[in-house]
Amino acid sequence: MMKLQNSLIVVVLLVAMLASCKPDDAEVSLVPEADRTEQQVKDRDSIISYLETHYYNAGDLVDDGTDYSIDDIIITELPQDDEGNYLPLPDPDTNTLLIDAVETHFTTFEEADYEYYILRINQGEGEYSPNFSDDIRLVYSGINIEDGEIFDSAINPNAPFDMLGLIQGWRNVIPQFNVASEFVVNEDGTVDYSGSGLGVMFIPSGLAYFASPPFGLGVYDNLVFKFELYQADANDHDGDGILTHLEDLNNNEDVNDDDTDGDNVPNFFDPDDDGDGVLTIYEDLDGDGDPSNDDSDGDGIPNYLDEDSTESNQDS
Q1: 81 with 183, same domain?
Q2: What are phi and psi of 204, to 5 degrees?
Q3: DSSP 40
Q4: Residue 181 CB-half CA count within 13 A
Q5: Using CB atoms within 10 A as the burial measure, which of 184, 205, 247, 296 is most buried?
Q6: Are 199 and 176 a contacting pair, CB within 8 Å?
Q7: C-alpha dihedral, 105 to 108 to 109 to 112, nearest 10°
Q8: Is 121 exposed, middle or buried (0-12, 13-18, 19+ CB in 10 A)?
Q9: Domain hosting residue 314, numbered range
Q10: Looking at the 3D structure of the chain, how many domains does it have?
Q11: CB-based contacts of 315: which residues, under 8 Å, 6+ apart?
Q12: Proportion of the chain in helix, strand, coil states, percent, rounded to 5
């Protein structure tokens, strides 16, 4: 009964937490999904066209120790003549075409291969780089490539976002930056950060909302997010003493497919990962806060993943 109660509490808390996150997972849609590989070809062409016809104020963002913000990054479309043809880049000493500045990255998601792009303004001067399942504190602004309009933003860094509740593109990009190097809490409760990670991500619909967008976006919209990454904290979603990113046993950055005891509750959600009746947190026999290094029978499988090892630090 205690195990069931603990599981229900964890489920309720996590569902409530993920429901509050944004840019969050997609809403339910009745639109039939396109083939992901075919859609990615279209999305890539659309994003490349955007990168080739837009520039940013690179000359205003020199690496001189200034703490720039997302408001300092100005992305502008190239001017056009009367016939709609794009004109050359204005003031090349100050401006840079996005296509000449972004990094191209590759990933596989939902069995499709994707390209996404990063404009890295500041790597972030802190020592910590987030895991894909961390809570992060940041501000951001989301732009729809299709119309250039801002569709979403967050200006309050005090409310953390759980990355497991965010779209895949964020889980790909944010861990490639570092957090701020320091922060100061002001008398009014606000926080000033220094040396934060600053960049822009350009992500295809398949790493965003795909066929199930939230209100204000269309299906298969490609997106741009400016962001300032301030802080990150590793998560232990089920409170079992194993950080969530370490419960990704097959190292595919998807904790939903790791289910040691086969009870249809993934390990990161399951306070008893091996289903042996002993809660994982009680299988930390040496009390060092890490159940993963306790292996009573020496078979190379830590007790919390070994149903044959039922020792507990609660045994009298």
Answers
A1: yes
A2: -75, 165
A3: H
A4: 8
A5: 205
A6: no
A7: 110
A8: buried
A9: 236-316
A10: 2
A11: none
A12: 25, 25, 50
> Which amino acid type is present at position 90?
P
Classify residue 65 as exposed, middle or buried by CB count within 10 Å of its CB (0-12, 13-18, 19+): exposed
Taking alpha carbons only, the member of 118, 154, 120 closest to residue 136 is 154
Q: What is the CATH number of the domain that holds 58?
A: 3.10.50.40
Tell me the C-alpha distance between 31 and 137, whole Å.
33
Same domain, 131 and 264: no
Length of the chain, please?
316
For 116-165, give the DSSP string: EEEEEEE--SSS----TT-EEEEEEEEEETTT--EEEEE--TTS-EEGGG
Residue with tokens 């939903």: 256
What tens-digit pLDDT sequence spans the chain (316 residues)?
333 344 444 444 444 444 444 676 555 555 678 999 999 999 999 999 999 999 999 999 998 889 999 999 999 999 999 999 999 999 999 999 999 999 999 999 999 999 999 999 999 999 999 999 999 999 999 999 999 999 999 988 888 999 999 999 999 999 999 999 998 888 887 888 999 999 999 999 999 999 999 988 999 999 999 999 999 999 999 999 999 999 999 999 999 999 999 999 999 999 999 999 999 999 998 989 899 999 989 999 999 999 999 999 988 6
The dihedral over CA atoms of 314, 295, 280, 164, expressed in degrees to the nearest 10, equals 150
